[in-house]
Automatic annotation (TrEMBL):
InterPro entries: TPR-like_helical_dom_sf (IPR011990)
Record Gene3D superfamilies: Tetratricopeptide repeat domain
UniProt protein name: Tetratricopeptide repeat protein
Length: 107
C-alpha cells in the first residue's frame, strides 16, 4: 500500500503546479525528518506568484524547531509582508505573534 507521501507524489506527477499538494508534500517531508527537502519545498512555495502565505509560517516554525531562529525570523517577516499584501490580516497576525514569541536573542 502506498504511503501518504507516495500518494501525494503521484498526484503531483499529474499536476505539478498544485499548490496544496506541494504544501502537503513539504509537510510530509517534515514529518519524515527530511527537513532540508521540506524547507526547499516551502521556499519554492514562498517564491510563487503570488506567494503561498502558509509556507512562510510553516518554514518559520520548522526552522525554530531546528534551532535556526534567525532564519525563522527572516521567513516570518517576509511572510507577514506577503500576508499583508494579500489582505490576509489573520495570517499576518499569527506570524507576528510567533515572531514576537521568539524575542530578540540570536541563535
Amino acid at each position: 500500500m502506498a504511503t501518504r507521501r507516495e500518494k501525494i507524489e503521484a498526484m503531483l506527477a499529474d499536476d505539478p503546479t498544485d499548490t496544496f499538494l506541494r504544501y502537503s508534500l513539504a509537510m510530509e517531508l517534515d514529518k519524515e525528518g527530511e527537513h532540508e527537502a521540506s524547507l526547499a519545498k516551502l521556499a519554492e512555495l514562498s517564491q510563487d506568484e503570488p506567494p503561498y502565505v502558509p509556507a512562510f509560517f510553516m518554514a518559520g516554525q520548522q526552522l525554530t524547531r531546528l534551532g535556526r531562529v534567525n532564519d525563522a525570523r527572516t521567513y516570518l517577516r517576509d511572510g507577514i509582508d506577503a500576508a499583508r499584501a494579500q489582505g490576509d490580516a489573520h495570517a499576518a497576525g499569527e506570524m507576528s505573534e510567533f515572531l514576537a514569541s521568539l524575542g530578540d536573542l540570536g541563535e
